[in-house]
Design a protein that fits this description.
Elements: H1 8-18, E1 44-46, E2 50-52, H2 61-77, E3 80-84, H3 90-104, H4 108-113, H5 116-119, E4 121-123, E5 138-143, H6 157-184, H7 189-193, E6 203-209, E7 219-224, E8 230-235, E9 242-246, E10 249-253, E11 260-264, H8 266-271, E12 281-284, E13 291-298, E14 305-306, E15 319-320, H9 321-335
Parallel strand pairs: 1-10, 2-3
Antiparallel strand pairs: 3-11, 4-5, 5-6, 6-13, 7-12, 8-11, 8-13, 9-10, 9-12, 14-15
Helix pairs in contact: 2-6, 3-6
GO molecular function: gibberellin 2-beta-dioxygenase activity; metal ion binding
Family: Belongs to the iron/ascorbate-dependent oxidoreductase family. GA2OX subfamily.
InterPro entries: DIOX_N (IPR026992), IPNS-like_FE2OG_OXY (IPR044861), IPNS-like_sf (IPR027443), Iron_ascorbate_oxido_reductase (IPR050231), Oxoglu/Fe-dep_dioxygenase_dom (IPR005123)
Length: 346
């Protein structure tokens, strides 16, 4: 079998050698016997709540209120929603995708060793303790503070200009959505976020999910919740793979060419006292097609306090974002997976 770029086959094979008896979840056979398995797991496909953000720009106050209410309702009931007429040009999204594909098409050695994008390149899952914890993917997880630095790009100078424009557009959209969600609970955004969420604290993550011979047994990204306030995802509009937990079962999200996907993160769930939901989600692999996505993470500074909007009846104790991230890292190192908000219950 031809080695993959990055060397996911090698890394996953090492896990199999250490866990020879582990079986796959759906076919109940030894994982090594599932190469080129053609069995497909049939899942319900869902249409996420679809919100036309153009309603917020309407001259009609009723339309503006209805749009804001739809965002808050979806954040409470689903933790996920889709946005159309979001204000980010489809041309910019297409340019960013072209640059992303060009970057990931580079040889593995160059991506891993040349210092591209603040040495933010990652692949697989170095903390995986068993095959089921392995993520069949590669990514650049980039602080926004670094995207303007020419030294991060090497020969990929065309990526810098597009990424700066992309990040600025996503930042503006994320702030607008956060403001609506905060106001819905009777607060002013400035009083909650202040200067804690800005271009110096947020991240972009460029993702690629290569074809996987063990699909759909191996996750492209293992089940998790996001550790930020909210995430804006520009997913692949051809190749599906995103799944989320809804009513105690996994449902597949149908790709939409014109839409961005927004999901609530752990910090917003804690701050809203569980009004908004940070929902578990994952990415499944595809045996034949690669998949790309770009995620924007609205994060505060590490020393920012995350308190509940209802302090007297708060479900969670007060904590800093830095404390939260440190606890996640410890749990992953010890247990192979994130525990998250349950660690911070009163």
């Amino acid at each position: 079998m031809v080695e993959s770029n990055p060397p996911l086959l090698h890394d996953f094979g090492q896990l199999l050698l250490r866990h020879p008896g582990e079986t796959c979840a759906s076919c109940h056979r030894n994982a090594r016997d599932c190469v080129a398995n053609e069995e497909m797991v049939i899942l319900e496909e869902c249409e996420l709540p679809l919100i036309d953000l153009g309603g917020l720009r309407s001259k009609d106050e009723g339309e503006r209120r209805a749009c804001a209410a739809a965002i808050c309702k979806a954040s409470s009931e689903w933790g996920f929603f889709q946005l159309v007429n979001h204000g980010i040009s489809l041309q910019l999204l297409a340019e960013m995708r072209r640059e992303q594909v060009k970057l990931f098409n580079e040889p593995f050695e160059r991506k891993a060793a040349c210092g591209l994008l603040n040495n933010s390149y990652r692949w697989g899952n170095p903390t995986a303790t068993s095959p089921k914890q392995f993520s069949w993917s590669e990514a650049f997880h980039i602080p926004l503070t670094k995207i303007s630095e020419e030294a991060c790009y090497g020969e990929f100078d065309s990526l810098r200009k597009v990424m700066q424009e992309y990040a600025a557009a996503m930042q503006e959209l994320a702030n607008e959505l956060a403001g609506i969600l905060v106001k819905n609970l009777g607060h002013q955004k400035e009083g909650v976020f202040g200067e804690s969420c800005n271009g110096s604290t947020c991240f972009l993550r460029l993702n690629r999910y290569p074809p996987c011979p063990w699909s759909p047994e191996i996750s492209g990204l293992v089940p998790h919740t996001d550790s930020d306030f909210l995430t804006i995802l520009h997913q692949d509009d051809r190749v599906g793979g995103l799944q989320l937990m809804k009513d105690s079962k996994w449902v597949a999200v149908k790709p939409n060419h014109d839409a961005l996907i927004v999901n609530i993160g752990d910090l917003f769930q804690a701050w809203s006292n569980d009004v908004y939901k940070s929902v578990e989600h994952k990415v499944i692999t595809n045996a034949k097609a690669e998949r790309y996505s770009i995620a924007y993470f609205l994060c505060p500074s590490y020393d920012s306090w995350i308190g509940s909007c209802k302090e007297l009846s708060s479900i969670y104790r007060k904590f800093t974002f830095g404390e939260y991230r440190k606890q996640i890292q410890q749990d992953v190192k010890m247990n192979g997976h994130k525990v998250g908000l349950p660690r911070f219950l009163r």
